[in-house]
Amino acid sequence: MNFELNETHKMIRETARQFATDIISKSCDERDEKEIFPTDEIKQLGELGFMGMMVPEQYGGAGLDSLSYVIAMEEISRVDASCGVIMSVNNSLVCYGLNKYGTEEQKQKYLLPLAQGKKLGAFALSEPEAGSDATNQHTIAVKDDDHYVLNGIKNWITNGTTADYVLVMAQTDPSKGSKGISAFIVEKGMPGFTYGKKERKLGIRSSDTVSLLFENVKVPVANRIGDEGFGFKFAMMTLEGGRIGIAAQALGIAQASLDASLEYSKQRKAFDQPIAHLQAIQFKLADMATEIEAARMLTYQAAVLKDAGQPFGKQAAMAKLFASKIAVKSALEAIQIHGGYGYVREYKVERYLRDAKITEIYEGTSEIQRIVISRALLKD
Ligand code: CAA
Fold first, then answer.
1. What is the pLDDT of residue 3?
2. 160 C-alpha to center of ligand 1: Å?
3. Is the CB of 361 under 6 A from ligand 1?
4. What is the CA radius of gyration of the chain?
5. Consecutive 10-residue runs of the chain (380 residues): their mean pLDDT?
6. Catalytic site positions
7. 232: Cβ below 6 Å to ligand 1?
8. Alpha carbon of 63 to those of 57, 73, 95, 243: distances in Å?
9. Atom of ligand 1 nearest to the CA of 243
10. How many helices (H) and strands (E) does the chain have?
11. For position 165, what pLDDT does the model report?
12. Which of 275, 206, 201, 188 is nearest to 36 (CA)?
């Protein structure tokens, strides 16, 4: 498979890297400490075309391929994984889902401002009793003439309170199990739609994670995505692409861990020499670089398959499984290389570890990725 980057890919990398270094890096530590949402940064990412990267230009997007998106996600997450996840949910779950499965009317009304970065989206599948076991949906939508009445709770929703539009999965016919689940576009401010507690997290602390509460929310039938009963397949097919985005986010955190380790090991002296001269450190750096490159290749492969219109679910799961593991491992090694300095807030590597861990959990835990991969292997 050919991963040669074209001029557009190189330009995207340069633009994303510069924006992350010049703008995002200024506030990321304070935002992490104080749990502040990056409102201005996300607005500027929208102006750069990074909030709807794969959406065609006619619907307000940048009309780029998935590889461009992966490259940008890596660069943004390399500086701030919180900005990374906000960007990821808007791009690969919300915009992708609407672009692929929405009606023309839904695209004009919702996709256009989301892809332009003027509005923000969220994706609501998880519930208190439906995390990995995603078919076990308790949120219910009952049809009443030209609308549905929505009741239930969604948990762990990234961009929860900040999102203008939320894609919500709900049971429309509980007797049909996963085939009775439907997907809806719910707008912020619809009567009966409120928020539960804001989560206080280990990492990605500047992103907004809350539960959503729906009490007799009237959602127009026109806001249903696809047919009744299509919601679970919609969520699964959308998540396949989402997992590529999270793999790229993990890749960014892993690369940041290596960058910090290279810089520190050249400066820090022990036994009368920079610690980079010690084989114990050199071997760690070599292993980190090799594993990060392998994770990058898996992630690029999944993106290229997606762009080619080929099945990519297994590769996306492999990329997320491996890249998230390497992110955690690289961050841990970076802390070890920094010694005591790695354990305190003075250096960024402790944040990298805190941010890395979630990539093994959201958009399908590592255990779920193994289920997806093994099912594909056995089916093959
Ligand atoms: N594409 C199309 N259809 C799919 C599919 C896919 N990738 N995966 C499953 N389906 C279909 C199945 O074919 C099946 O349909 P049929 O009955 O017609 O064959 C139906 O969906 C039910 O699937 P399963 O029988 O496989 O269901 P299951 O309960 O055994 O397992 C699972 C499914 C893979 C474990 C799934 O529940 C899953 O992926 N769980 C993890 C959920 C997840 O990733 N949550 C992330 C939340 S979003 C998030 O984190 C965003 C954020 O804020 C950052």
1. 76
2. 22
3. no
4. 21
5. 87 98 97 98 98 98 98 98 98 98 98 98 96 95 98 98 98 96 98 96 98 98 98 98 98 98 98 98 98 98 97 98 98 98 95 98 98 94
6. 363
7. yes
8. 5, 16, 12, 20
9. 44
10. 13, 10
11. 98
12. 206
State how far the alpha carbon of 137 is from the alpha carbons of 176, 225, 230, 323, in Å: 12, 17, 14, 29
119's CB contacts (< 8 A; 6+ apart) are 110, 113, 164, 165
Token output for 241: 């692409």
Query: Which residue type occupies 342?
Result: G
The rounded Å distance from CA 211 to ligand 1 centre is: 21
**Is the distance from the beta carbon of residue 253 to the nearest atom of ligand 1 less than 6 Å?**
no
Coil, helix or strand at residue 265: helix
Q: Which atom of ligand 1 is nearest to the CA of 156?
A: 53
Q: Which residues contact 331 (CB under 8 A, 6 or more apart)?
A: 253, 254, 257, 349, 352, 353, 355, 356
Q: How far apart are CA 141 and CA 151, in angstroms?
A: 7
Q: Are 154 and 212 in contact (CB under 8 A)?
A: yes
